[in-house]
Amino acid sequence: MKSLKLSVSLVFLVLFQWGLSAQESQTEKPAIIPQPAEIEWKEGFFTLQERTVVCFNSGAEASAAWLQRLLKNTYTQSYTMKGENCNGFSLNLDPNLEETLGKEGYNLDISSSVVSLEAASEAGLFYGIQTIRQMFPAEIENKKVSEEIKLPQGSISDSPKYEWRGSMLDIARSFFGPDYIKKHLDRMAFYKLNRLHLHLTDDQGWRIEIKQKPKLTELGSKGAVKGGRSGYLTQEEYKEIQEYAAARNIVIVPEIDMPGHIYSALMAYPELNCDEFANIEPRLATPPQLFHEYTVGWSKLCLDKPEIYDFVATVLSEMAEITTGDYLHIGGDEIEDERYKEFVIKADSIVRGLGKTTIGWEEVTQAQVDSTLISQRWNGKTNSVVNTPIIESICSSFYYDHANVPGQEMTNNWCKEDGVSLKDAYTFKVKNPNTIGVEAPVWTEMVLSNEAADDRFWPRTIAMAEVGWSEEENKDYKNFIKRLSEHGLRLDLMDVHYFRTPEVEWNSDRNKGVFSEFMPKSKF
User: Taking a C-beta distance cutoff of 8 angstroms, is the pair 315, 206 a contact?
Assistant: First the structure.
């Protein structure tokens, strides 16, 4: 009887240990975001050696540099060399893979001796490196990791659902300069986002240098919302931001909002106004006053004056000249004027004549614009008369100036009274077949600091990134929450002042000091 009891106990002990082992094995799997298209984990690990080689074929030189920079924060001494099938890390650029992976996809295979990455483009290799980066300890983000690093063996075949995976920063209401924009680009790249839309002009401020119209920045850049920052980007700064973005496979999309939201230009060049400022209604400010309030939809160019098109052409021409990407955004929202449609058609024609693709907020599709124009939907209420490609930025899911949770201070609520939750962002479903992607804006009427901007962007932008990258059948909110929780410490170490969404059990050391959670024994 004792023998039977002992046997049963041993069986239970083995089963218990097996359960713990299986549980440990499961927790060892990396929390990759966005969720890859296909992933298969295997037994065993690739162990990073004290010396390792990063070999690459022709065209993958930049990717090798990114990977070596990652390895620099580990104990390994890495070397790069041209070649294929090396032990260590092997990068292979093969344009023929575009047929199966598209332009941005990648295949990653990890065996006991080789981490092999292949893609059709440098963008694909770059995104594969971001996946590898997420497999490394979080500490790699800002210090050297001395502990042994093991990557689980497995294979990943991955490519994005949408070509447009964007974030928008409004630097017109309150100014954000090159340093913050570059930090935001770094964070976007980590989650495989590829478009940064900069809202450069609005009633409160003009934020981009136009050399043929110097008063736009000499005068128009001086304004900001109450408590906000004024300023502008020089053309050299703008070019530098684009170069920084391009290295991370991100395209900068500049927006010059017109014919409304234009008071900063009307103040700088009063001749753009109608007689007696009939185009400013209600009259919240008149030149030479600056505007520091929040109200929108009250200013517009004087559309009765043919000469305004000289101004529009001058500004758009100079923007096209300094913009390396394919797009110019002309705004076009929240305006009522009998000549509105005429303006939109002409502005679209000007952009196309400059060799760029026009983007406009959804209201522009009330006009018979060219079918190549991209419509950015923010409320979904416009009766379009043209069939165009669509970026989904529906405010109830993607306007991140709104509260993270109900009642959050210094946030908007006009679109959704209880705010835009992490779940609202993640569970958005695309219904229009013309959709080319998603983009989440942060408007800055009430976003007056870098920390506040971080709070609005993150982690909801991470949810949006998975909406843009992962197929619907690969998405699961509970699983996403679990993976996201593992990113808390990494976000801390990346100096992201993200909102600590209550439903996420964040793995994080934020705000912990040497005595945090310590309790001395009462007796020794």
Answer: no
Q: What is the number of residues in the chain?
A: 524
**CB of 121 within 8 A of CB of 103?**
yes
**How far apart, in whole angstroms, are the C-alpha atoms of residue 271 and residue 298?**
17
The answer to whether the CB of 164 falls within 8 A of the CB of 438 is yes
DSSP single-letter state for residue 274: P
- Rounded-to-integer distance, Cα 221 and Cα 201, Å: 9
For the chain, the straight-line distance linking the first and the last C-alpha, in angstroms and rounded, comes to: 46
Output the 3-class SS for 138-206.
HHHHCCCECCCCEEEEEEEEECCCCCEEEEEEECCCCCCCHHHHHHHHHHHHHCCCCEEEEECECCCCE
pLDDT of 515 = 65
Q: What is the 3-state secondary structure (H, E, C) of 88-131?
A: EEEEEECHHHHHHHCCCCEEEEECCCEEEEEECCHHHHHHHHHH
> What does each C-alpha distance from 46 to 113, 153, 417 come to in angstroms?
6, 6, 49
Instruction: Report whether 132 contacts 108 (CB < 8 A).
Output: yes
The counts of H helices and E strands in the chain are 16, 15
Q: What is the pLDDT of residue 523?
A: 52
- Contact yes or no for 298/203 (Cβ under 8 A): yes
| Residue 456 C-beta-side C-alpha neighbours within 13 Å | 29
User: What is the C-alpha to C-alpha distance for residues 482 and 472, in angstroms, rounded to an integer?
Assistant: 18
- Looking at the DSSP assignment, which residues form a beta bridge with residue 206? 201
- Comparing 14 with 55, which gets the higher pLDDT? 55
Give the strands of the sheet with 38-47, arranged side by side.
38-47, 150-158, 106-110, 114-119, 88-93, 51-56, 77-82
Query: What string of H, E and C letters represents the secondary structure of 398-463?
Result: HCCCECCCCCCCCCECCCCCCCCCHHHHHCCCCCCCCEEEEEEEECCCCCCCHHHHHHHHCCHHHH
pTM for the whole structure? 0.93
Within 10 angstroms of residue 244's Cβ, the number of other Cβ atoms is 16
Q: How far is CA 24 from the centre of its chain?
A: 33
User: Which pLDDT tens digit goes with each residue over 146-156?
Assistant: 999 999 999 99
Q: What is the pLDDT of residues 502-519, one digit of tens each?
A: 999 999 877 666 565 566
Q: Which of 24, 41, 48 is nearest to 149 (CA)?
A: 48
Handedness of CA 238, 244, 249, 250 (dihedral sign): negative
CA distance 65 to 63: 5
- In our burial notation (b when 16+ CB lie closer than 10 A, e otherwise), range 340-373 reads bbebbebbbebbbebebbbbbbbbbbbbebeeeb
